[in-house]
Amino acid sequence: MKPEDPAGTRPQRLAIKQERGHITYDALIEAGFKLLMERDIEDISIFELSRVAGYSVGAFYARFRSKDEFFDALINKHLEIRTNTQKRLVASLSRTALVNDLISNVVDYYWDHHIFWRAVLRRTLRDPAYWEPFRQHFNESTQRFLERVETEIKRPLSEKEIRNITFAFQTTLGTINIAILNQPGPVFIGQALFKEELTRAFIQISGLDTLLADRTA
């Protein structure tokens, strides 16, 4: 029979094991995003992924049953990162910098992670249901922005104003997605002009220039 651990040591050992498990998990996720900045997920082996993370293949399979399951974990991390970033920006940016800095952050993130995001988009084309968590993220992000605008103008938005702002967000994300999938041009996502034009389009579609001007009138 296995001897009992001395009193008080089992919880501590369990906590240490759990902490190490989280460190390994996070290292694998970080390695995944790093490698996906260079090439597609299909071209990344589990051996290479584990090596870059600093762990064995066995450590990978102790946490993920397959590369598909690992990719799902990357998506969950992506949604966590984008949610936390958007919450912070919407809460902290000044009124004058809100749209410009928010769109700049979104464009920069998706351009930096365009190989990862292209893989996501390709999966959603094969299985539309795969898009559901992203749709929920989009709706929650839009709602936070709407609440911030209402705080700025000190009144509830009308249905038409909500529709305009929501469509501006939809147009922004759709333009980014198209640019990442096939770079149609003539303005490309890696150019500064892309952010400038996307910001201008967002402001025009949303009507925010009028809304925020009314606030200062």
Describe the structure.
With 217 residues, this protein is mainly α. The protein is built from 10 helices and no strands. It has helices at residues 10-35, 46-53, 57-61, 67-92, 98-112, 114-126, 132-153, 159-182, 192-206, 208-216. The mean pLDDT is 90.
Shape: elongated
Structural class: mainly alpha
Radius of gyration: 22 Å
Q: What is the residue-mean pLDDT, rounded to a whole number?
A: 90
List how many beta strands DSSP finds. Answer: 0
Distance between the termini: 80 Å
Q: Uncertain runs with pLDDT below 50, 5 residues or more?
A: none
- What does the largest sheet look like? none
The percent of residues in helical segments reads: over 70%
Report the portion of residues in β strands.
Answer: under 5%
Order of helices and strands: HHHHHHHHHH
Determine the number of helices (DSSP H or I, runs of at least 4 residues): 10
Kindly summarize this structure in a few lines:
The chain is mainly alpha-helical.
